[in-house]
Design goal:
mainly alpha
Amino acid sequence: MGHRHDDILIRRLSRRRLLHWGALGAAGCGLSLSELLAAESVPRYGIRPTADNCVLLFLDGGPSHLDMWDMKPAAPAG
């Protein structure tokens, strides 16, 4: 009973129309998301946080990830 309606819908739905509808949906979500992000960027209490410095650490010299996690339990150690 419902199969005939589904078959008609599938026949009418072309790849181009599906991509068109998907693009329109993504654009609609993008427009509403931009308004939400703009509302979140406004400071709530009038205090704007600023960063004067940034600390970046490079920690070299640790063991390799291959040495820390071996997926072969029957492999010889060492």
